[in-house]
């Protein structure tokens, strides 16, 4: 997932592959065909984020209202492990590690990479692509109290609950056909396009397939409580995955405010 | 996982009311419910028999049933909510069910419950914030 060696791409090739293509590995040039570069950071974030673990849901009372909330517990970690800069790697980003584990749980290259930053062995690494990395340095621990406060909005990304291979009815809310009267279209998806012209199926037609177990991002989630003492964040509403799922929490991207 | 549950409990504790009287099924209680009426806040009492308890920590609710002008009225109150300002247990009853839904099918004298003459907890009143 995370390529630990510095990205060996030239600046020009990087600019060709923008944020949209950032996840896909690509070869940079013919001379470097053997070396695949994976940029592990995704689209630009409004600021440095942190990791959290979904602890579960409950509801709390606020101003006389009962609100559904998700409690996000913070495990040991959230330490800056690397800073990438425009001049060196071609883009500014902050790499953050999460969940401190025993030495033997990670590979030797990973261990050395973390040791360079003076950070303990950590299971998860992720880059947050940001405008500038000022005020941050490798080995620095991120503090939730200084990053988020009550009433802030955050973007939360995580892996959704996997539902397996599902038909169109469950996956896309298609209508079903008649169950009786000789119907041969009970839970089928129906037509997938025109006939001889164009003589093919258009790309992106909704069809049965894997549902869930994919990265999803929920935008503009309200922070209801920052509990530094218990190491938890209380966010309004549901979040991806089940309890125990690792989530990435960044300041919300709001057009006109910070984007 | 166990640790996560502890964190959730600690956070729930922050929002919960302390030292609430123990409400039991079959109790005849009077709840003070703060309501907003034409811009004013006032407390309206609701009196009735507790026919069900849903014990769920912070989300604990009581179902209170009373007969109003010959019509059965049931309301469900989350007791930790700020709108419940006082709890007064007036009477306790000897019941052998966790849910007294059978009272819904009874009228008049048949809805009486056998009284239990226990020591009743004192009236609980929310601290005015």
Automatic annotation (TrEMBL), chain A:
InterPro entries: Ribosomal_uL3 (IPR000597), Ribosomal_uL3_bac/org-type (IPR019927), Transl_B-barrel_sf (IPR009000). The keyword Repeat does not apply. Residues 179-200 are annotated as: Disordered. One of its GO terms (molecular function) is rRNA binding. Signal peptide: none annotated. GO terms for cellular component: ribonucleoprotein complex; ribosome. Keywords: Ribonucleoprotein, Ribosomal protein, RNA-binding, rRNA-binding. GO terms for biological process: translation. HAMAP family: Ribosomal_uL3_B. This is Large ribosomal subunit protein uL3c. It comes from Auxenochlorella protothecoides (Green microalga).
Automatic annotation (TrEMBL), chain B:
GO terms for biological process: translation. PROSITE patterns: RIBOSOMAL_L19 (PS01015). It is found in: Plastid, Chloroplast. It comes from the Eukaryota. GO terms for cellular component: chloroplast; ribonucleoprotein complex; ribosome. Pfam families: Ribosomal_L19 (PF01245). The keyword Ribonucleoprotein applies. One of its GO terms (molecular function) is structural constituent of ribosome. SUPFAM superfamilies: Translation proteins SH3-like domain. Keywords: Chloroplast, Plastid, Ribonucleoprotein, Ribosomal protein. PANTHER family: LARGE RIBOSOMAL SUBUNIT PROTEIN BL19M, RIBOSOMAL PROTEIN L19. HAMAP family: Ribosomal_bL19. Belongs to the bacterial ribosomal protein bL19 family. This is Large ribosomal subunit protein bL19c.
């Amino acid at each position: 997932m995370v390529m630990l060696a510095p990205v060996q791409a030239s600046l020009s090739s990087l600019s060709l592959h923008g944020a949209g293509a950032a996840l896909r590995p690509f070869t940079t040039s013919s001379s470097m065909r053997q070396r695949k570069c994976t940029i592990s950071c995704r689209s630009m974030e409004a600021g440095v984020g942190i990791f959290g673990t979904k602890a579960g849901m409950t509801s709390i009372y606020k101003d006389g209202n009962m609100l559904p909330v998700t409690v996000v517990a913070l495990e040991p970690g959230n330490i800056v492990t690397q800073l990438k800069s425009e001049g060196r790697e071609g883009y500014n980003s902050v790499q953050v590690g999460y969940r401190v584990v025993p030495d033997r749980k990670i590979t030797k290259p990973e261990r050395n990479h973390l040791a360079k930053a003076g950070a303990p062995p950590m299971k998860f690494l992720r880059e947050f692509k940001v405008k500038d990395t000022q005020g941050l340095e490798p080995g620095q621990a991120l503090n939730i109290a200084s990053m988020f406060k009550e009433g802030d909005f955050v973007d939360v990304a995580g892996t959704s609950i996997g539902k397996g291979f599902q038909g169109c009815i469950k996956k896309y809310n298609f209508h079903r056909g008649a169950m009786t009267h000789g119907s041969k279209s009970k839970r089928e998806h129906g037509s997938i396009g025109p006939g001889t012209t164009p003589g093919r199926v258009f790309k992106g037609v909704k069809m049965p397939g894997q549902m869930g177990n994919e990265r999803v991002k929920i935008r503009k989630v309200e922070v209801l409580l920052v509990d530094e003492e218990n190491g938890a964040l209380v966010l309004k509403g549901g979040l991806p995955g089940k309890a125990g799922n690792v989530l990435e929490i960044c300041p919300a991207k709001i057009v006109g405010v910070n984007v | 996982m166990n640790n996560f549950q502890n964190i959730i409990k600690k956070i729930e504790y922050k929002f919960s009311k302390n030292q609430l009287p123990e409400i039991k099924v079959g109790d005849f209680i009077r709840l003070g419910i703060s309501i907003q009426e034409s811009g004013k806040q006032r407390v309206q009492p609701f009196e009735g028999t507790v026919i069900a308890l849903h014990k769920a920590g912070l989300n604990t609710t009581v179902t209170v049933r009373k007969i109003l002008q010959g019509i059965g009225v049931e309301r469900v109150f989350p007791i930790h909510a700020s709108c419940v300002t006082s709890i007064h247990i007036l009477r306790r009853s000897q019941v052998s069910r966790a849910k007294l839904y059978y009272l819904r099918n009874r009228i008049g004298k048949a809805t009486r419950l056998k009284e239990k003459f226990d020591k009743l907890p004192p009236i609980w009143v929310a601290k005015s914030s």
